[in-house]
């Protein structure tokens, strides 16, 4: 897991909060001071929270569960999408559709529709459609892909959410809370950290800050995936060894029986 230091967070501008008049009083424990009308986040607290969040997400992934990454703000979309794709984790970087979690059955119908359209477009019959009909189908596919492409292979609800800017993504947070899904997220000085399970106090507007936090979280996910793979490989090896022992034992038993018969 990547280890970041105080200086790394400082260089990325993680400590810069919002204007003091925009603050949420519940963020007080994570604020170091006020400077030129801006709240400064206590980076020591950020380091501790980032470690706790990393350990939590690593444990979730290690158990074979999936984490959904959510970030619809412009400066976070590309970096979140990039990491989520690399990790093969679901993500939402366009618009959060109301009920994406709480009404997941309907979302699954839309995913099946998108899949069937893609399948149809590969068939010869699609090429024989009128140009206008092909255009209509293509536009519908593109619309669904834009909204749901990041969760195309999500067969069931995610086991956790990682959210950039919990204030902006308040609907996603509310849905996850209603379903008891753990939430890990970046919380700026204008947010309520008590709304989520693992808050990471940090600047959620600057690209460098978001990028650094995501790099650490992605590293934790990678480590969790690697440990799960090792455990599965070890288990498979153990099963193969046990099977070999049984075969060897059976052979030895058969040999003993043959030897006993020969002696008779």
In short:
By secondary structure, this protein is α/β, with parallel strands linked by helices. The protein has helices spanning 6-11, 43-62, 74-87, 104-121, 124-127, 131-148, 170-179, 207-263; strands spanning 16-19, 31-35, 38-41, 67-70, 91-92, 160-164, 183-187, 198-201. The strands form two sheets. A five-stranded parallel β-sheet has the order 5-4-6-7-8, sandwiched between helices. A three-stranded antiparallel β-sheet has the order 1-3-2.
The CATH fourth-level homologous superfamily of the largest domain = Glucose-6-phosphate isomerase like protein, domain 1
Residue-averaged pLDDT = 92
Strand content: 5-15%
The number of domains is 2
What's the Cα radius of gyration? 25 Å
What is the first-to-last residue Cα distance? 66 Å
Biggest sheet strand line-up? 5-4-6-7-8
> Which CATH architecture of the largest domain is right?
3-Layer(aba) Sandwich
Give the biggest sheet: 5 strands, parallel
Shape: flat
N-to-C order of helices and strands: HEEEHEHEHHHEHEEH
Q: List how many beta strands DSSP finds.
A: 8
CATH class of the largest domain: Alpha Beta
**What is the CATH topology of the largest domain?**
Rossmann fold
**Low-pLDDT segments, ≥5 res:** none
Work out the helix count: 8
Structural class: alpha/beta
Helical content stands at 55-70%
